[in-house]
Amino acid sequence: MTLAPSQSNTMRTVPRRRWPSAAVWVTVAVILAVHVLAWQATEFSPAALIAGWEGMADFLAESLPPDLSVLGKSLEAAVITLYIGLLGTTFSIPSALVLALLASRATTSAAWAQQAARAVLSFLRSVPDVVFALIFVTAVGLGPFAGVLALVFHNTGVMGKLWAEAMDESDRGPRDALRVTGASGPQIALHAVLPTVLPSLAGLLLYRLDVNVRSSLVLGLVGAGGIGFLINQSIKLFRFDEMVTHILVVLLLVVVVDQASALVRKRLGA
Amino acid sequence: MLAVRGLRKSFGGRTVLDGFDLRVEPGEFVALLGPNGSGKSTALRCVVGLETPDGGEIDVSGNAAMVFQKIHLVGRRTALDNVCSGALGRLPLRRSLFCPHDVRDEAMRCLDRVGLADRALDRCARLSGGQQQRVAIARALCQRASVILADEPVSALDPQAAVQVMELLVDLAGEGMTVVAVLHQPELARNYAHRIVEMVAQ
């Protein structure tokens, strides 16, 4: 097929460049204004950073070389941190699964049940794990147990939502096919939805394990045990050389967990 | 036996079925032909309850099963598991977590009926399209269906596999089942169906 040139000559003129509309300018102005406000509210000041460089230099001088005599203690605490992340993830599987099944439109047809489950998930997700940790520290005292509880609650919210979304995206066909056989909702969830989405759920679980191990570091800072707790102690005692050792161990931990979870996820193809 | 009288269905103001009648006796294989939008699939989906008709009567003696163009098996599960799931409708929830022994026996016989007993433990995703469609028919048999509704069962299959599936459907009608298939290839309909029903777009 050949394209004929336009009939009239006036059509040949190049269209003029169009300037952005007023709405674009207003949007840009609003975004700029919000950034100015944020700059002021956060007391953002590069000058202060430059003026205070000596403090940072002292800190670095004190922290180097790292004090490797605490390495054994540090590694032990890193394992605790890993355990907090592990139990926090594993123990949230049942609650996340139940809530995800209720929240997904692939497995629940009652709108009120979906809404209720989604509301619970949103609540759990919107309360940061650090806040849960502070609450549980008042109940079970300082230590790793409070950290595990905090992760179980927050992770139920996040993982439940991710799982529900994975179920939502599952193919409708096998569900319809089972509905024709007379299968009930729970039977369809069990025999069509879950077998289909299992690799995605496992991939998301590993991703959350990865995130939760890193979160449990921060939980340690508020007293929930593990290597975060040691970092906090070192800072309070001005033992910055110890702190650097702990941070190097953290780096190792994060890299190892990250690589391991990426490897398994790749094998799962999720 | 399948009897449909005065079936009506519209989607958002667009009428797809306006007083559709169909009567198919046991042992009969009827092919539905017609252009896109003539309501062939919709009629079948109304019979099995995947769509709610706006009006009309549907009368099915026994159990109606459906076979789909896109087959709709769970690809990650074995052929046997997929066939077992045909029995879910008559199993209580507590017995359906794992397929009970008697159902597995029955499912195995259904797979044997479609000639795939030797692939029982293969994941469905590893089977060819024609084999998958035969597993789907075995699932319908495990549902103890007396009526099989097939919505373009061979449109996604290569010619040899299509012939195998069509011969299977004819055989099942010969054994006394009621079979209705939406087809897009008139020559397949002429070669295999006992009767052809032409539908027109509304």
TrEMBL record, chain B:
Transmembrane segments: none
InterPro entries on file: AAA+_ATPase (IPR003593), ABC_transporter-like_ATP-bd (IPR003439), ABC_transporter-like_CS (IPR017871), MetN_ABC_transporter-like (IPR050086), P-loop_NTPase (IPR027417)
Record carries keyword Nucleus: no
Domain ABC transporter stretches: 2-202
Database matches in PROSITE patterns: ABC_TRANSPORTER_1, ABC_TRANSPORTER_2
Superkingdom: Bacteria
Record keywords: ATP-binding, Nucleotide-binding, Transport
Xref: SUPFAM superfamilies: P-loop containing nucleoside triphosphate hydrolases (SSF52540)
SMART domains: AAA
GO MF assignments: ATP binding
Pfam families listed in its UniProt record: ABC_tran
Database matches in PANTHER family: AMINO ACID IMPORT ATP-BINDING PROTEIN
Protein's UniProt name: ATP-binding cassette domain-containing protein
Organism: Lentzea indica
